[in-house]
Amino acid sequence: MRATHERSTVLELGARGRLDGAPFTLTGRTCIEGGRGTIWNEWRMRFGDPRPRFLVESTGTFTVYEEGSLAPGFGELTVGDPLDTGFVVVERGEARRVATWGEADAAPARYAYADLSSRSGAVAAIDFGPVAEGALAGVAGASGAGSAARALTDGAGASERPRVYVGRRVTLAALGLSVTAREPPWLVAAPDVSRPRGVETWLDVGDEGVLDGVRFRVAGALSRRLVAEARVAWDEYLLYAPELGLRWLVVVAGHWSLVEPVDPGRVVTSDGAATLDGTVYDAQPEATARVAWATGALPWRVEIGETARVTDFVHGASMLTRERTTDTLAWSRGVRVAPGAVAAAFAKRSLPKPAGHDPSAP
Question: Where exactly are the structural domains of the chain?
Answer without folding.
Answer: 2-175, 188-345
